[in-house]
Design goal:
Layout (H helix, E strand, L loop, with lengths): L1 E6 L6 H4 L2 H8 L4 E6 L12 E2 L9 E2 L1 H12 L7 E11 L2 H7 L4 E6 L4 E2 L1 H7 L2 E4 L9 H12 L8 H4 L3 H4 L13 E2 L2 E2 L2 H5 L2 H19 L17
Helix pairs in contact: 3-5
The structure holds ligand 9D3.
Length: 236
């Protein structure tokens, strides 16, 4: 898979891409992540990429021309069109189901914005979808782009050790995780539940399932709601 990221702050991506699963997935050739600086495609010597909104109002708007020039430059670097995604607060809320869908693509082009928003002709002219990562206000689309990259890349075949990928798929889908413990057996007066020390795997499985259900009911009852479409997709 090739992922292009169009951004005014490519340096923000350095650390997340250089660690753990994202670093290994790139080293193994599972994904090629290409960062492009939209400012490099500004037409004037001031490298201007934003301007005042027509009709007035506060803040600045990302200009169409530099984004189009940057987009056309990266699109020419690979055959597959793939999906074009604007990270915007107006977008479809990101979910595990969307991550699964994106992980099947040969190519993604992610466009992270700054300022108050994109000139609408960027969305219209590029035929872009929009994704939001949730209903809270961030300073730009870079962190959301990294969230999308992380969620998608770890789904690529071979990106995650199989101890994680197949772990407890049987019953954990759609539920919160059961509680986990590692050594020592007692820490500051808190003991590991007896059932986990016994080695009766049937009993352990039943206990974990009950814990997962109890915790979901207590902390995320929305996940158990039959009317929640998430319960009919990939789940959490
Ligand atoms: C004043 C209206 N604001 C919209 C809610 C303006 C605005 C706020 C923040 C415009 C852009 C931004 C920057 N945020 C993103 O680019 C963004 C974002 C987010 O803020 N929250 C969740 N997901 C995303 S994806 C991109």
């Amino acid at each position: 898979m090739r992922i292009d990221v169009l951004t005014l702050f490519p340096e923000m991506f350095a650390s997340p891409l250089a660690h753990s699963i994202l670093r290994r997935a790139q080293a193994a050739g599972l994904v090629e992540i290409v960062l492009s600086n939209i400012r490099d495609f500004a037409a004037d010597s001031y490298r201007k990429v934003d301007d005042k909104p027509y009709g007035g109002g506060s803040g600045m708007v990302m200009m169409a021309a530099p984004v189009f020039a940057c987009f056309e430059h990266v699109r020419a670097q690979a055959e597959e069109p793939g999906r074009v995604i604007l990270l915007t607060p107006q977008g479809q809320p990101f979910s595990q189901a969307i991550a699964t869908e994106l992980a099947r693509q040969p190519r993604l082009i992610l466009i992270a914005g700054r300022y108050e928003g994109f000139d609408e002709r960027i969305r219209l002219g590029l035929g872009a979808e929009q994704i939001s990562i949730g209903d809270y206000v961030l300073s730009g689309g870079e962190l959301p782009a990294m969230v999308v990259i992380d969620a998608v890349v770890r789904l690529l075949d071979g990106a995650v050790g199989d101890e994680n990928s197949v772990r407890d798929e049987s019953f954990s889908e759609g539920l919160l995780e059961y509680p986990q413990y590692t050594r020592p057996e007692e820490f500051r007066g808190m003991r590991v539940p007896e059932v986990l020390l016994g080695g009766d795997h049937k009993k352990i499985e039943a206990w974990r399932k009950q814990q997962a259900l109890d915790r979901t009911r207590q902390w995320r009852p929305d996940l158990l709601d039959k009317n929640n479409p998430k319960n009919n997709e990939t789940g959490v």
